[in-house]
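Tip: read the tokens left to right.
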């Protein structure tokens, strides 16, 4: 049976009594960042809270242990940072003054969202939600734990930074079907992105990162979490109602990232200067109907965008329904890759239809823009390639090297990010920050420090403010605190030997002497003050040793001092006093003085007894 006391709170694997997990590196002494629940807190008398996984405007997600079922789960806690907080060491949430109404409304939306998700369990591209309950003046959702990585991390680990359409089709189409089911249930995600789509060990992609609408909309009561390049324009506060089209835009943007290898341009920038294009090298490789589907779904204005998941699925499947709805076909000739100025597929003029199926003008602006985008991309690619070859050949002739035959191009994503200053930050905070963990790969190396508190970062391998590729590995040196040493047993040892042993263990030593009655060996350690042998203490801890002092000298009679100034006392004679006449002639005779036999020890007697 698994003992929860022996579980790593970072990955919920059994590790015995070791302090640092050999699987995930989580240290047992790691403190949770405020105001989130402390590690090993228990909620609902059932769930043991572990490491904080991520947080945003409406709450936090922890890994946890289901004590009843003996398995790991994840717990989503409602904790909006603009409306509530929690005192360190407490479980109860405190609502900020004046925010009570907003807090109750947002919490009601949180409970409603997650209860709807409990009814969606069983969908292949969705993490199962087991339970929703209220406690500690807040609410919690208990979810299935699936070991996975984000789509973004998955793509960054590829040499190319992108995947071909057939691979993307297998990953994305089940997600699109699940998204349609969510819309049917009245759930709009508003956060589909490479950071919220997870790829599990089974190779399936699942939707995660659910939040209430206030956390995914600018100018709300919560801190908005919008993913630039993936959030639709209506989420920024512009006119336009959020709905299924909001998720369709985000899904198409995520698919674009997977196929092209770069983030789409942010919607707010596209609104004034739309430069979003499919690069020429990808336009040659991707099916025309896929490009057409992306163009339809990535329209900036909601009313011009693909309206439903069903339509987008048809667009990406090249079904007859999709072709009839779009009314536009694209062909990319092998050589030269430039489409004719007035394409006439199938020998007849295409007719564009609106989403409602009504005829539209055949020279509509949308259709015209689609052709221009493809044509411009292909022409730009060809012209750029020609200029590049001319420059390189000229330089090669001048420098004396030859040009090899062109090889298959491998594109490596070069997204650059600035490195923050992690020094003096708590490592637990850094390693649980979703933005940092998605931009960098961290490796923690521990070392002792006399000046930096335990768990805080001493130094980093990449200098702060450096511009590096996304996914760059950064080694963080984390303080283990002041080095600890075990106090060895020194009682009964010679003081000098004890002092030397303690100095080797980095203790400082003080000495106090104790009175010796002569029964103890001078200079030996009698006791240690206020410290416990066998317990560990920080380097430099002061140890006070009580040491036996010198034994007293033995005093004998012959060595004893005379007492000449003491009246009435004298030393006894060595021999007994003989009987002598006690009186002089003419005086009355008195009884003779009787003396006792001499003892082995001298006796001091009064002088009045002898005259």
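Filled-in amino acids:
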């Amino acid at each position: 049976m698994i003992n929860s006391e022996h579980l790593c709170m970072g990955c919920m694997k059994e590790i015995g009594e070791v302090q640092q997990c050999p699987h995930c590196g989580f240290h047992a002494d790691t403190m949770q960042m405020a105001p989130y629940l402390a590690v090993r807190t228990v909620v609902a008398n059932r769930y043991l809270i572990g490491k904080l996984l991520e947080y945003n405007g409406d709450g936090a997600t922890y890994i946890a242990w289901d004590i009843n079922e003996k398995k790991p789960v994840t717990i989503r806690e409602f904790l909006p940072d603009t409306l509530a907080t929690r005192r360190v060491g407490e479980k109860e949430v405190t609502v900020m003054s004046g925010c009570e109404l907003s807090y109750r409304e947002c919490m009601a939306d949180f409970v409603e969202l997650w209860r709807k998700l409990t009814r969606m369990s069983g969908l292949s591209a969705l993490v199962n939600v087991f339970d929703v309950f209220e406690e500690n003046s807040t609410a919690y959702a208990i979810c299935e734990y699936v070991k996975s990585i984000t789509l973004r991390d998955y793509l960054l680990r590829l040499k190319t930074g992108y995947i071909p359409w057939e691979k993307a089709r297998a990953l994305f189409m089940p997600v699109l079907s699940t998204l349609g089911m969510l819309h049917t249930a009245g759930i709009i995600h508003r956060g589909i992105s490479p950071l919220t789509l997870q790829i599990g060990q089974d190779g399936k992609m699942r939707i995660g990162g659910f939040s209430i609408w206030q956390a995914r909309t600018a100018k709300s009561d919560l801190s908005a979490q919008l993913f630039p390049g993936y959030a639709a324009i209506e989420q920024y506060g512009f006119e336009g109602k959020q709905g299924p089209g909001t998720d369709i835009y985000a899904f198409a943007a995520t698919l674009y990232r997977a196929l092209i290898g770069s983030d789409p341009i942010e919607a707010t920038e596209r609104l004034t200067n739309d430069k979003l294009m499919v690069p020429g090298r990808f336009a040659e490789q991707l099916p025309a109907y896929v490009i057409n589907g992306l163009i339809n779904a990535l329209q900036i204005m909601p009313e011009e965008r693909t309206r439903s998941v069903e339509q987008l699925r048809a667009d990406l499947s090249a079904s007859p329904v999709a072709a009839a709805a779009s009314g536009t076909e694209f062909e990319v000739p092998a050589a030269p890759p430039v489409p004719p100025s007035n394409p006439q597929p199938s020998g007849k003029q295409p007719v564009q239809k609106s989403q409602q199926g009504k005829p539209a003008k055949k020279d509509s602006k949308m259709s015209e823009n689609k052709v221009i985008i493809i044509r411009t991309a292909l022409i730009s690619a060809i012209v750029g390639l020609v200029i590049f070859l001319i420059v390189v050949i000229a330089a090669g002739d001048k420098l004396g090297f030859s040009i090899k035959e062109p090889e298959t191009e491998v594109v490596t994503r070069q997204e650059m990010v600035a490195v923050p200053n992690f020094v003096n930050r708590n490592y637990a905070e850094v390693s649980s920050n979703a933005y940092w963990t998605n931009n960098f790969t961290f490796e923690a190396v521990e070392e002792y420090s006399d000046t930096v508190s335990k768990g805080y970062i001493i130094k980093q391998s990449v200098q702060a403010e450096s511009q590096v590729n996304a996914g760059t590995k950064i080694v963080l040196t984390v303080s283990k605190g002041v080095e600890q040493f075990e106090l060895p047993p020194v009682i009964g040892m010679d003081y000098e030997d004890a002092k030397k042993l303690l100095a080797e263990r980095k203790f400082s030593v003080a000495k106090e002497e104790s009175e010796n009655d002569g029964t103890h060996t001078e200079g030996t350690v009698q006791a240690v003050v206020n410290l416990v042998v066998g317990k560990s203490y920080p380097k430099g801890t002061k140890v006070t040793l009580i040491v036996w002092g010198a034994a007293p000298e033995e005093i004998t009679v012959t060595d004893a001092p005379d007492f000449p100034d003491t009246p009435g006392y004298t030393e006894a004679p060595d021999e007994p006093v003989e009987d002598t006449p006690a009186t002089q002639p003419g005086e009355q005779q008195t009884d003779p003085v009787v003396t006792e036999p001499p003892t082995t020890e001298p006796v001091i007697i009064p002088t009045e007894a002898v005259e």
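The radius of gyration is 43 Å. Residues 320-369, 390-414, 607-611 have pLDDT under 50 and may be disordered.
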